[in-house]
């Protein structure tokens, strides 16, 4: 799933910067996976949450 986010959603929703080298970090609690990416241009934090039910 992290590969999917690494290939998509690389445009910042705040400033519009596209980070072609960007990566999402991932953490899990066991029941959810939290994805996070910081825009190198403006510092905005993009997040996605995937529930594992």
Report on the architecture of this protein.
The structure is a single chain. With 53 residues, this protein is mainly beta. The chain has one domain: Single Sheet (N-terminal domain of TfIIb), CATH 2.20.25. Helix content is 11%, strand content 34%. It contains one helix and three strands, in the order αβββ. It has one helix at 2-7; strands spanning 25-28, 32-38, 45-51. The chain has a three-stranded antiparallel beta sheet with strand order 1-2-3, with no helix packed on it. Strand 1 (25-28) and strand 2 (32-38) form a beta hairpin.
In short:
The chain has 53 residues and is mainly beta.
Mean pLDDT: 86
* Count of DSSP H/I helices: 1
The CATH class is identified as Mainly Beta
Distance between the termini: 16 Å
Count of the domains: 1
What is the CATH architecture descriptor?
Answer: Single Sheet
CATH topology title: N-terminal domain of TfIIb
- Approximately how much helix is present in the residues? 10-25%
Major sheet characteristics: 3 strands, antiparallel
By DSSP, the count of extended strands is: 3
Beta-strand residue fraction = 25-35%
What structural category arises from helix and sheet content?
mainly beta
Q: Report strand order across the widest sheet.
A: 1-2-3
Stretches with pLDDT under 50, minimum 5 residues: none
């Amino acid at each position: 799933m992290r590969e999917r986010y690494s290939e998509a959603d690389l445009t910042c929703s705040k400033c519009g910067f596209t980070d072609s080298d960007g990566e999402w970090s991932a953490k899990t609690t066991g029941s959810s996976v939290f994805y996070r990416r910081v825009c190198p241009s403006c510092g905005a934090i993009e997040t996605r949450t995937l529930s594992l039910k």
